[in-house]
Write a structure and sequence with these properties.
The protein is an all-alpha fold. It has seven helices and two strands; from the N terminus they run αααββαααα. Keywords: Membrane, Transmembrane, Transmembrane helix.
């Protein structure tokens, strides 16, 4: 009869394959879909943007689930990951501005500004304070020491991170930032930008599942 650890490893491997396949599908389909999808699909508060926010919150929830088990160093590692997911998620929502009326509307959709928020001056200080506090707690609990055994065991998900980086570069090029360009304009460029960003988040989620797998492997080896 398979052990609990064996079942966990199998489940994590299947999840990794499923999420990785989804990321590759979105990445490969992003360019042709950029010309096919209507402009509104990539607007702020549109389907693709909302999918990004949902995915980021799912990453946060998953990290919080992972932190329920393991030693204190891993617990604080996952709490740190959860904070990063949360920051990315609320940033994707313009810190909450998307729930207000847009300040303008163009062919590329509504435009929201965090300047509308009464708590805007507190956002950056709160972010800095929370990140610094969590960093101190992670250092205190030895979360930084996990990198060495992960690297030695080949547990760092470089492939997923590189794919996420590639997607973000495509997204950046679609916006024509950093001197990069895809040659696309208008709705096609915006569709490519947002779809590539969605794929990047999927690959980051893949990397998180891979890290959880290697946490289990390292724990079993002890």
């Amino acid at each position: 009869m398979p052990s609990v650890q064996t079942k966990l490893h199998s489940r994590l491997n299947k999840t990794t394959l499923l999420v990785l396949s989804a990321g590759l599908l979105v990445l490969l389909a992003s360019y042709p879909l950029a010309f096919i999808l209507p402009a509104w699909t990539s607007w702020e508060n549109g389907p693709v943007e909302n999918a990004q926010a949902i995915l980021l919150f799912l990453g946060m929830i998953q990290a919080l689930i992972f932190q329920k088990s393991g030693s204190s160093d891993w617990k604080w590692f996952w709490r740190g990951a959860a904070l990063i997911w949360f920051i990315c998620a609320v940033r994707e929502l313009s810190w909450g501005a998307v729930f207000l009326e847009p300040i303008s509307l163009s062919e590329l959709g509504p435009f929201f500004s965090s300047r509308q928020l009464w708590y805007k001056p507190a956002i950056m200080p709160a972010l800095i304070a929370s990140v610094l506090l969590l960093a101190v707690l992670m250092l205190k609990n030895g979360s930084h020491k996990l990198l060495k055994p992960l690297q030695q065991s080949g547990g760092l998900p470089w492939g997923s991170f590189l794919l996420a980086t590639l997607c973000m570069m495509i997204s950046t090029a679609a916006e024509e930032h950093l001197g990069l360009t895809t040659g696309l304009t208008g709705a096609a460029a915006q569709n490519l930008e947002e779809l590539s960003e969605l794929a990047a988040y999927i690959f980051l989620l893949t990397g998180q599942v891979q890290l959880r797998y290697h946490q289990s492997v390292l724990s079993t080896a002890l």
